[in-house]
Amino acid sequence: MKKLITLFICIMTATITQTPDAQAQSTDEQPFQDILSTMQKGWNAKSGQTFASVFDSKHDYVVVNGIYLSGITPEANAHGHQQLFNTVYRTNVLILKLDKIRFVRPDLVLMHVLGATYEQGKTVPVDPAVVISMLVEKKNDIWKVVSFHNCNIEVSNEPDAPNKSPIPFQAMYATWYKH
User: Fold this and answer.
1) Residues 52, 56, 58, 64: what is their CA dihedral angle, to the nearest 10 degrees?
2) What SS3 string covers 45-66?
3) pLDDT tens-digit profile of 47-106?
4) Distance (Å, whole) CA 83 – CA 52
5) How far apart (Å, rounded) are the C-alpha atoms in residues 20 and 26?
6) What does each C-alpha distance from 95 to 42, 57, 59, 129 come to in angstroms?
7) CA distances in angstroms from 99 to 29, 132, 173, 175, listed in the order given
């Protein structure tokens, strides 16, 4: 039994020392900031092509209203966004802020992003309006979005809501900032 336990410990030790900790792979957030910057620039320049350029050749996209687009191309994504930019979002400005990243594997990152849109010339929102989850994969040394989920942040107008929240309100959007 002792030999079996010793063998198990040796195997586990070898596995642990040879398997890199995915979280420790990189602390460089720049590639992920670049993705958000490109999306924001595309939106604000009303360029569907620029906005969609950060997406993989086949990706999943969950629209803010819950529509699930599976396996779409950047071209389809660009076309859909261009139609929005030419109509309902033609005067909207987008702000995106990286909240956190988590390395699932050395080549796969989960990003949480806070965002908001507002009308050109109007006041910049104090709080974010959406939370976005993105799965970003590194292929051929390029990070591309393989899955995108956009969700409205629901806000309660109930005066006692902060006291009932399971998460302190001041901690919920700790990284959001005013421009």
Assistant:
1) -50
2) CCCHHHHHCCEEEEEEEECCCC
3) 999 999 999 999 999 999 899 999 999 999 999 999 999 999 999 999 999 999 999 999
4) 13
5) 11
6) 11, 25, 23, 10
7) 11, 10, 8, 6
CA 169 to chain centre: 21
| Angle between helix 30-44 and 74-86 (nearest 10) | 40
Residue pair 94/43 in contact by the 8 Å Cβ criterion: yes
Find residue 110's DSSP bridge partners: 102, 135
Pick from 71, 61, 75: which is nearest to 147 by CA?
61
Six-digit token pair at 34? 């670049």
Amino acid at position 106, single letter: P
Secondary structure class of 81 (helix, strand, coil) = helix
Residues present in the chain in total: 179
Whole-number Å distance between alpha carbons of 75 and 57: 9
**Cα torsion at 133, 135, 99, 124 (round to 10°)?**
-60
**Residue among 61, 70, 63, 36 nearest 50 (CA):** 36
How many degrees, rounded to 5, is the angle at CA 58 between CA 110 and CA 87?
90
- Give the integer Cα–Cα distance in Å for 38 and 81: 14
Query: In angstroms, rounded to a whole number, what is the distance separating the alpha carbons of residues 132 and 62?
Result: 10
| pTM attached to this predicted model | 0.77
